[in-house]
Amino acid sequence: MFVTNVNSCITADGGLVLMVGIYYPAITVEALAGTAAFISFINIFGGFIVTQRMLDMFKRPTDLPEYNNLYGIPGAAFLIGYFASVSACYSEIHQMTYLASSFRYNFEN
């Protein structure tokens, strides 16, 4: 599952790069990139759901509750900040996002 999600992350990142930070595609390449990113995000989300269901099979009734949904708070804060920066025409946000993505990949290896 991890390898599938990593491959989908790479596809989603590539689609976002080819979209060039615009909301509506102007050419066919941007439309295909947006479609690829959307399908990749669906695959990533589905992979997390399947993984959680597999892990739930091994839980005991006496186990402590987990609060994994709280991990969405930093992700939502990042996305809100990113879209706010894009809408404010802060052009350097794309390079900063690329840099943050490269840190994530380097720390996983």
UniProtKB/TrEMBL annotation:
Q: What is its EC number?
A: 7.1.1.1
The question of whether Endoplasmic reticulum is a record keyword is answered with: no
Its record classes its membrane topology as: Multi-pass membrane protein
Show the stretches that span the lipid bilayer. 22-50
Task: Write out the catalysed reaction.
Answer: NAD(+) + NADPH + H(+)(in) = NADH + NADP(+) + H(+)(out)
Which keywords does UniProt give here?
Cell inner membrane, Cell membrane, Membrane, NAD, NADP, Translocase, Transmembrane, Transmembrane helix
Keyword Membrane listed? The answer is yes
Q: What is this protein called?
A: proton-translocating NAD(P)(+) transhydrogenase
Gene name of this polypeptide: NNT_1
